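Hi all, a correction to my earlier message: I attached the wrong file for Ketoreductase domain-containing protein. Here's the right sequence:
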Amino acid sequence: MAVAGCGSREERWSLAGATALVTGGSKGIGHAIVEELAGFGARVHTCSRNAAELEECRRRWEEKNLRVTVSVCDVSVRAQREKLMETVRQTFDGKLDILVNNAGQLLFKPAAECTAEDFSNLMTTNLEASFHLSQLARPLLIHASIAGGGSIINVSSIGGSIAFAGSTVYAITKGALSQLTRNLATEWAPNKIRVNGVAPGFVTTDMIKDVDPEYMKQENSKTPLGRSGKPVEIASAVSFLCMPAASYITGQGGDVEPGRRHRARHRRQQRDRTCHRGGAC
Ligand SMILES: NC(=O)c1ccc[n+]([C@@H]2O[C@H](COP(=O)([O-])OP(=O)(O)OC[C@H]3O[C@@H](n4cnc5c(N)ncnc54)[C@H](OP(=O)(O)O)[C@@H]3O)[C@@H](O)[C@H]2O)c1
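and the right structure:
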């Protein structure tokens, strides 16, 4: 494999020979990430809580000649996370190049109505699992053979830095996940482990299938591209961040969304210009 920052273009944009663990790969964004990483040549292990669904995915990936193994794991349970990492260690002979902390759950509920159980379930699934899996993966990532070192990708959300009413607990978990990205990137750079995040906007998956279409339309209209994303559009960004091509990138929490912040800035600039000209503001 290429040395960081060197190597041919083919080597820099390839994951041939790499090994990866992607949590929550049976559906949505995780499913697309598994296919994209495996398509670039990585051997991938993935998990979710539903054995039948996982087996169906595994069968379809085998038909496509993608090298993917699966096991059941509820990432909110500490003992199951430990068992998952032991499976990964055995499957990949003690070496891991990539960990993608993708499994997550959304809760749309006014903050005043959230129970202690809601809070604890989301914190454990979306945040604690990513922290603990990163700890467990560290000894394997240190042996990564991919140029640029091992990689952790945390799938955060634009909701972790912009406030949407009704998703306070989810937002707290994603905001903290982005901070986890920055801190681990700083602590583990000497171990040649890069840690980055992706923060998607709305992506068409089961997670948002019950969101009111009118609300979605309104939210999308606030962005320059004006539409929701597709899972593969997030998977492309994740794959890039894991490649030797991204060997100089760590601690970043990249928004992967249709330009919401810039549209807001553009509106503010327009309003300020109106004010300067003496118009109503
Ligand atoms: N869709 C969006 O608009 C959007 C936007 C920003 C960020 N994100 C983030 O992207 C990630 C993936 O979301 P998605 O939209 O692809 O959701 P999804 O379609 O609901 O898929 C979630 C995946 O995670 C698994 N999962 C959920 N809880 C789990 C647990 N406790 N243990 C193990 N696996 C679990 C699910 O399988 P089982 O349920 O069978 O376990 C499934 O494979 C999440 O972290 C989410 O917060 C999504």
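Sorry for the mix-up. Residues 116-141 form the longest helix (26 residues).
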